[in-house]
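ARCHIVE CARD
Drawer: 12
Card no.: 0347
Subject: one protein chain, sequence and derived structure
Cross-reference: see card 0346
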Amino acid sequence: MTDRRLFLMSGVATLCAAVAPARAQNYPSKPVRIIVPFAPGGVDVTARLVTDRLAAAFGQPFIIENRPGAGGALGAKVVAGAEPDGYTLLFSSPGPVVVSPLINKNAGYDPIKNFAPVAMVAQSPLLLVIHPSVPAQTVQELVSHAKANPGKVHFPSPGFGTQTHLVGEMFKSLTGADIVHVPSRGSAPPITDLLAGQMQMYFDNFANLRQHVEAGKLRALAVTGGSRNPQLPAVPTMRESGYPDIEATYWNGLLAPAGTAAAAVSRLNSAVNQAVATADVGAALRRLGSEPKTGSAQEFAELITAEVERWGKVVRDANIKVE
């Protein structure tokens, strides 16, 4: 009886092991929920470019659900704790995935342990701009001005611990400039205050700043990526400006809960890459100020690991934390 029982248990285990990959190969067989951890009108615009293509490719609805709150941590936590069956996914930028758990020990998730990166969609460097009243034409001149006027150069951010805040802290640490952070609530007030001359410098993505630079209302000094951005080709990189260690990339990507079947992740990765590679999606992303980005799930995972290391150092050096 004991041998028979062991034989039956072994058979059941083998059957279960075979069924799981088979289900993943048939994925998705029902609607997929995509959590965007921000209010409508921002990241979800990029998400819809891809999810529309995924729905067409798989013949299933990919439904976007905006879950803003706590700098994006609320929505990210929902996905981190979801069933790893591929039917609840996260479409996010770096803040909720990487930064929030670094600055808040109560975020409730780990950027490495609780997510299975699926695919990147787009990325772009940040843009450093200043108000025209600041007497600087280059980054080095801005640093000299800030050192000569300690505490008088202010930089805003959409909130404490956001990526734009951390890039400002990185700038402060690596240049020695005495600049002051002024957090806001949301992405609109920092630009409004900067245009009014109440703030002097700001880091943000191209989509939010490009029109003001082209209109002459703000002066662009540098981009934080490894190469110049084709949308503003005259603007040098931080490396060209003499500060190679000031580097930051704003990205959007799709993630699943940790433990999601590799076959499901692979199917999603392939479909996302195909969508991003199309001419119309690529053109739409560029209009939003980003460059299309394709690659493997492993490459996306490696990027997130590097991001945790980079921003973790900034958080520790500046002693940034949310109680």
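Annotation on reverse: The CA atoms of residues 139 and 221 lie 6 Å apart. The chain has two domains: 29-124+249-318, 125-223.
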